[in-house]
Amino acid sequence: MALEQQVDLRALVEAEAAEAGRALAALTDDSVTAALERAAALVRERRAEILLANEADCAAAEGKLDEGTLDRLRLDERRVEALAAQARAMASLPPLEREIGSRTLENGLVVSERRIPIGTVGANFEARPNVALDVAGQLLKSLNTAVLRTGGAALRTVTVIVDDVLRPALEDAGLPGGAVGLVRSPDREGARVLVSLPKVLPLVILRGSGETTAQLSRLAAENGVRALAHAEGGGVLYVHPAASREKTLAIAEASLDRLGVCNRLNLLLVDRGARELLPDLLSLLDRLGIEARGTGRAGVGETLDVRLGHEWANDADRVSTVTIDVVDDLDEAVRLANEETSGLAAGIVTEDAGAAQRFLDGYRGTAAYWHAPTRYTDGFELTGAPETGINVDWAPGPRGPVTYRDLWLRQYRIVGDGTQSR
After folding, report:
1. Is residue 385 one of the residues assigned to a domain?
2. In angstroms, rounded to a whole number, what is the distance separating the alpha carbons of residues 1 and 382?
3. pTM for the whole thing?
4. Which of 44, 117, 415, 418 is the most buried if burial means most Cβ atoms within 10 Å?
5. How far apart are CA 355 and CA 358, in angstroms?
């Protein structure tokens, strides 16, 4: 990309962020709720425009995107109705409780701990038009403003959602339409610009999986921008010697109802003491049309030709695959789940409550399960609120499914009477 074009794109993104920043002071819980309710109505009213733009996006993407990505890009009447329901559900959620707690010190100072908005937040997401409404709604609900950037494949659709739904809805509620900005360029440089403006976009949400998101996360760190990145996933299931055959098979099957999602079963760890369950598990995978890739010591299926934690959901050519390994004991299962995978989610099947507790205590990922499929690692399922993504950072802050309830900064407020001194 030519230097002049880079400068122009940077200026455009900065202008969108500046406009969104000026809108911050106008946001209130009531006005945002009204705007989201209006957005739900406008989705239905502008259904034809949304579908027309999406049809053009899908036509342009034919032959360039794999079928799974095309499916996520494609909207139809049912999915547009789901967009409206999504906005309506966001509107109905209770606003953030702003005061966390307060206490009075011995010297009379009243100290309260509060949640305040972050400010203007960037969001970069893959070719999924529903994410535009989802992320913008959550940011507005937490009284933050947004600058959105989507892949070029979805830009027509997202532009209609921003210009014909979100901005008019904000204005109808008496708010500045510029509270939601958009990077109006299909060039990938737009994503790199988005994570390089710490003064106007201190936080960027990165939705999508794979190396591209990981690269953006690293670039954000280099520029002093905090990133909530959903770059990797993959669920782990450990079958303990005291596992019930029926529960093992039921949980494994429930973990594989969808294959192109981050929280599906990715790595199956079978204890040496539970090897007798391997034939049944292989029969289940075969019935589901899923290929088993085994390590040398597992000795099952095709030979594993990638790292142990390789995420099959991101492997378009081999998405219908599960990795199988045989482990010596529970401690090794915990170690592999912690060290060889993204840390998204891991579960255990066992009738031994003590073993289950050891597994739950030892696993350090974002969600630990006993007798339940990792498919429940989802913001709406666990918290009742849509998620912006799942953050697997090994650091303090929002971790696991991130929702509007996590998009705030802590602030202390101190009130005295003028007599206090140190």
Report:
1. no
2. 43
3. 0.85
4. 117
5. 5
Locate tokens 């893959």: which residue?
Answer: 126
Q: Is the dihedral of CA 247, 248, 251, 253 positive or negative?
A: negative
Q: Which domain holds residue 371?
A: 235-380
DSSP 8-state symbol, 210: S
Q: How far, in Å, CA of 341 to CA of 254, rounded?
A: 20
Instruction: Give yes or no: residues 247 and 111 share one domain.
Output: no
Residue with tokens 């998101």: 213
User: Are 281 and 199 within one domain?
Assistant: no
Q: Which of 129, 335, 350 is CA-nearest to residue 248?
A: 350
Question: The dihedral of CA 222, 223, 224, 229: what is its sign?
Answer: negative
CATH number for the domain spanning 133: value is 3.40.605.10
Smallest Cα–Cα separation from 14: which of 222, 227, 196?
A: 196
Residue 321 pairs with which residues in a beta bridge?
291
Interatomic CA distance for residues 263 and 207, integer angstroms: 14
Residues 201 and 95 in one domain: yes
Q: Give the side-chain half-sphere CA count within 13 A for 51.
A: 11
AA letter at 374: T
Q: Distance between CA atoms of 117 and 121, rounded to whole angstroms?
A: 10
Q: Give me the sign of the Cα torsion angle 166, 171, 174, 180.
A: positive
pLDDT in tens, the chain (422 residues): 544 555 689 999 999 999 999 999 999 999 999 999 999 999 999 999 999 999 999 999 998 887 778 888 999 999 999 999 999 999 999 999 999 999 999 999 999 999 999 999 999 998 889 999 999 999 999 999 999 999 999 999 999 999 999 999 999 999 999 999 999 999 999 999 999 999 999 999 998 766 788 899 999 999 999 998 876 889 999 999 999 999 999 999 999 999 988 999 999 999 999 999 999 999 999 999 999 999 999 999 899 999 999 999 888 889 999 999 999 999 999 999 999 999 999 999 999 999 999 999 999 999 999 999 999 999 888 888 888 888 888 777 788 888 999 999 999 999 999 999 88
Task: Report the run of H or E that residue 368 belongs to, with start and end.
Answer: strand 367-370
Q: Does residue 388 belong to any structural domain of this protein?
A: no
| Residue 271 located in a structural domain | yes
Question: What is the Cα–Cα distance from 131 to 137, expressed in whole angstroms?
Answer: 9
User: H or E stretch including 193?
Assistant: helix 189-194
Judge whether 395 lies within some domain. Answer: no
